[in-house]
Amino acid sequence: MSKGITSRSEDYSQWYNDLVIKADLAEYSAVRGCMVIKPYGYAIWERMQSILDKRFKETGHSNAYFPLFIPKSFFSKEASHVEGFATECAVVTHYRLKNDGTGNIVVDEDAKLEEELIVRPTSETIIWNTYKGWIESYRDLPILVNQWANVVRWEMRTRLFLRTAEFLWQEGHTAHATAEEAIAEAKQMLEVYAEFAEKTLAVPVIRGRKTENERFAGALETFTIEALMQDGKALQAGTSHFLGQNFAKAFDVKFTSKEGKQEYVWATSWGVSTRLMGALIMAHSDDKGLVLPPRLAPIQVVIVPIYKTDEEKANIDAYVEKLSAELKANDISVKYDDRDTQRPGFKFAEWELKGVPLRVAIGARDMQNGTVELARRDTQTKETVSQEGLSTRIVALLQEIQETIYQKALKFRDEHITEVNSYEEFKEVLETKGGFISCHWDGTVETEKRVKEETKATTRCIPLDFQEEEGVCIFTGKPSKGRVLFAKAY
RNA sequence: CGGGGUGUAGCGUAGCCCGGUAUCGCGCCACAUUUGGGAUGUGGAGGUCGUAGGUUCGAAUCCUGCCACCCCGACCA
């Protein structure tokens, strides 16, 4: 925890791991590559869920649930899709165990499944197989469905929240009568994600589209939001895909149009995952631990009493009861930490580690003076203020903290977008400064692959506010129509 | 799956080369003094040294097999 979060040291990954564990968010489980999300970490995820879910409902979507298992034959119906996921699937081959006679439990070879089941790495195939039965006419469209689920991708190397073998996410799957409508949906949901990242997580993101090489397996267009972490590496924080008619064709999903013609439906899918937890942690945390933006913090205000006698404690209790009620009336979540098993200094450090945005400390001295001590987590500043009008002050302060955290991340992000005009410069910036590199690229997959091999940097996106600009590719010298963003990424 | 490394108390470790039943710190329990930034003192509990076998009078230590985990690669819309 003392390595220095903003330094781009090789210990960053160790630092991150320690933080996740010490702040009580998650830990590795006994199952290889899988993670246990602990109650405090899960509370943050639940905040994300509830805010996102509300937006999904507001934009006309409903929740549903589809099976965990996907028959192998479904999975292989869309060629590029299966190719994209084939190397990281968990496969169920048997449905029974037995005692081998010596007390060992073994797989019963007689219970071999005729068709293997894939544990979903994503649900496009099972969902499109289902949609086939739901869609006959243009009157059945659009279908706007989301599911909250777990998925499994058998990754070789894992990192808490950022890449685990099993993770939690939401995946939206929509069906439309026209390509225009589907594209509009994909863009709309990207904006929902972007706004959530910026307004709630206080993480600025770049909205863009993926190059063909980085596109989702089976998509015609992948929109992405890209965030920047404090070590200078980029993180893909959410994606929204225009799937064209690929899945409709693979699963034969047609509808009768107003004109009485049989047409394939147009699809989108979009998702964000517990990876957002990683983004949140790496975007804001400092050497003292987690920094949570108030809109997301499960506990927004923690109150710590400081006392010597029972009488002093009773006095403070009475005041805190009143203050808590006022704060709760303003929709602020409050924790009164009056454990008598820990001393104040310990509690201060502990809640800072857990990222609680605002701390109120009240001692006997304060009770005499009619004051409290307010301590901000984000700026690590303290001030003594009057108890008069305190709840109003706290409401305003929480908003200010939210804004300050965002502005700090935004400043860092903007300072780490560098325009370069030569490969030498590209490599130099990548090694020393990190962040996004804006440069001309000839648009070919070969060049992307070569750059990745030589520098580990990948194209993150073609920004949506892409400006046409004549130039030459810094890698090959071929003509280019504009700048794209490269970065090393998680 | 390749290359490297590590398994000793809840966590982090010393001991291993050179064999004699295990060190220190954190944490935990009790009591006392403390309480406005991670308290202090005294006492205490907790270990099949990853696992199976071998060598030996004797193995955490030497040898062999196995297992697990970590790091670096490959992989990761």
Automatic annotation (TrEMBL):
Residues 27-293 form the Aminoacyl-transfer RNA synthetases class-II family profile domain. CDD domains: ProRS_anticodon_zinc, ProRS_core_arch_euk. The keyword Secreted does not apply. It catalyses: tRNA(Pro) + L-proline + ATP = L-prolyl-tRNA(Pro) + AMP + diphosphate. Pfam families: HGTP_anticodon (PF03129), ProRS-C_1 (PF09180), tRNA-synt_2b (PF00587). GO terms for molecular function: ligase activity. Keywords: Aminoacyl-tRNA synthetase, ATP-binding, Cytoplasm, Ligase, Nucleotide-binding, Protein biosynthesis. It comes from the Bacteria. It is found in: Cytoplasm. Homodimer. PANTHER family: BIFUNCTIONAL GLUTAMATE_PROLINE--TRNA LIGASE, PROLYL-TRNA SYNTHETASE. Consists of three domains: the N-terminal catalytic domain, the anticodon-binding domain and the C-terminal extension. This is Proline--tRNA ligase. It comes from Sphingobacterium thermophilum. The gene is proS.
